[in-house]
Design goal:
single chain, 316 residues, alpha/beta, 10 helices, 33% helix, binds adenosine-5'-triphosphate, binds 2-acetamido-2-deoxy-beta-D-glucopyranose, ribokinase activity, Ribokinase-like, transferase, potassium, ATP binding
Amino acid sequence: MSRPKRSIIWVCVSCSAALPSVLLQAPRLPKAGETIHGYKFFIGFGGKGANQCVQAARMGAKTAMVCQVGKDFFGDNYIQNFKKNGVSIAFAKQTEKAATGAASIIVNDTGENAIVIVAGANMLLGQQELQHAQSAISRAKVLICQLEINPDASLHALRMAKENHVKTIFNPAPAIVDLHSDFYKASDIFCCNESEAELLTGMPVSSVEDASRVGLDLLQKGCGSVIVSMGPQGCVVCQSINVAPKLVPTITVTAVDTTGAGDSFIGALAFYVAHYPTMQLEEMARRANLVAAVSVQNVGTQTSFPFRKDLPAELF
Ligand SMILES: Nc1ncnc2c1ncn2[C@@H]1O[C@H](COP(=O)(O)OP(=O)(O)OP(=O)(O)O)[C@@H](O)[C@H]1O
Ligand SMILES: *[C@@H]1O[C@H](CO)[C@@H](O)[C@H](O)[C@H]1NC(C)=O
Ligand SMILES: *[C@@H]1O[C@H](CO)[C@@H](O)[C@H](O)[C@H]1NC(C)=O
């Protein structure tokens, strides 16, 4: 692996899980010991962080992914996908010590699924690897983290960013009940959906009023600001415990597949934070809504994410 030159600065850096997925569509889920015929097979290059990176890069952000994959077929193709999308792989390490992590997903005709996730090489992303990426993390405009790698590693990365005055976007997904309190303090923008907000606060979230209430609760835990995404309603933005949270509505579109909408939203948000640092958070959220609204009108996750050329000039 060639060492990146000190002079290169990536505005958007993500320390995240590399989680390629194998998606199989079948009329129904197989029973134990059974072999059935399906009709569609698709390889995706997820992990939430990777999806968010790809969306930010497609909008024009100079983006780097800090992750670990194995020296195997999935690892090679995973790296290739980043290259294709203009995401830097200077910190995407291929290790001999583990196989690439992966998710196997079977979906039946009614949309029910069965999923197995193997963490693999993602388990090896720790402090040492983050230290290697220190030059990128400390000089970025924005760092994005989720909870698909070891939470200690995520928190370490967020702290590194904060120490260097790098803006942090934290997406607590998949949410865990006893999230370390320092995650809130290390988040400049804490970005979650309704079910994550519910799990983290223990408060029910099914309306804009509920989202506003949990948003204020999360602010009280120490977040700089909070965005609760609300699907077709848009999102609720909370910036201060002294200011009423605000619903930032989105446009009505015909959604064909909302998978990855949250990642499209966060990737777009990261782009705006990096490129328009003085823009109001509500305006960034309004624009990120419009980017995510494009993604729900197409099938797939990364396959549905728009490029800069597909978006109206007003968004830039
Ligand atoms: N049906 C929809 N119509 C328009 N915009 C949508 C729709 N669904 C989602 N969005 C946009 O995507 C953003 C994120 O969606 P959502 O709140 O469903 O996140 P999520 O649950 O993390 O998504 P997912 O898990 O499906 O990736 C919303 O804030 C909104 O801007
Ligand atoms: C899909 O799987 C779910 C859960 O196993 C089941 O309830 C549903 O009936 C299945 N649909 C079909 C078409 O088999
Ligand atoms: C929130 O995101 C999680 C993935 O982290 C997903 O499983 C869940 O269905 C989402 N909730 C809503 C309300 O969209």
